Amino acid sequence: MTIADPTSPGDTTPDGPDIHAIEVTVDGRTEQGTVSSRTLLVHWLRDDLDKRGPKIGCDTGNCGACTVRWDGRIAKSCMILAVQADGTEVETAASLAAEDGTLNNLQRCFKEHHALQCGYCTSGMLMTATDLLESDAEITEQSVRRSLKGNICRCTGYENIVRAIRSAAGQDVPKPHSREEGEEQ
Asked: What is the largest CA-CA distance in the chain?
C-alpha cells in the first residue's frame, strides 16, 4: 500500500482526499490497492504488486522501458497516474508467457535472434511488438522500426530486435551468426 507523505504540501492524512482505493485487472488478475493521487502507474505496478516487467527508465515517457498495454493499447506507465487506471485492464510483459513459464512465440524469437542484451528495454519492446503483431498493420522492416520509435535500446542497435519481430510475424529472416563450438574467437 502506498501512503502519501503527510509532510508534503497538498497531501493530507491517509484517510484524506489524496488517497484513493483502486481496482485494476493486471495480467488477468483483479488487483486492489490504495494510492496517493500522484502515484504513477509504473510505481504502483512495481512497488505494490511486484511486477518487474515495466522498468523505470526516464520517468518522462521518452525511453519506453515502462511500456504496458492499457485497455488494449500500448502506453507508457510512467505517464499514467495509478488512479487513472482504476477500473481498467493493464498487461505487462509477465502476461506474455504461459503460466508454466513457457515463452510465447515473440519471446522465443527474441531469444533465438539475440534481441536482447542487458534486458532493460526488453519488456517495453515486447509489449510494443505484441501490439504491432496483433494489429492489422502490414509487418515490414519499416513498420517494425516505426512502431519501435518510442522505445530506446542502448545495447543492440535494434537489428536483432527488428529481425525477431519479423520472425514472430512468420517472415523468413536470417538468424544471427553464432560461433560453432571449438571455433576460434
From this structure: 67
pLDDT beyond 60 at 1:
no
Q: At what angle do helices 122-134 and 159-168 cross, to 10 degrees?
A: 40
Task: Determine the Cα–Cα distance for residues 172 and 6; give it in Å rounded to an integer.
Answer: 57
The burial of 50, by beta-carbon neighbours within 10 Å (0-12 exposed, 13-18 middle, 19 or more buried), is given as: exposed
φ/ψ of residue 36, rounded to 5: -75, 155
- Model confidence pLDDT, tens digit, residues 107-123: 999 999 999 889 999 99
Contacts of 20 (CB under 8 A, 6+ apart): 34, 35, 36, 37, 83, 86
Instruction: Please check the confidence at residue 185 and state whether its pLDDT lies above 80.
Output: no
The number of angstroms, rounded, from the C-alpha of 2 to the middle of its chain's C-alpha atoms is: 22
* Phi, psi of 34, rounded to the nearest 5 degrees: -125, 125
Beta-carbon neighbour count of residue 2 at 10 Å?
16
Amino acid 19: pLDDT = 95
For residue 127, which of 99, 107, 145, 157 has the smallest C-alpha distance? 107
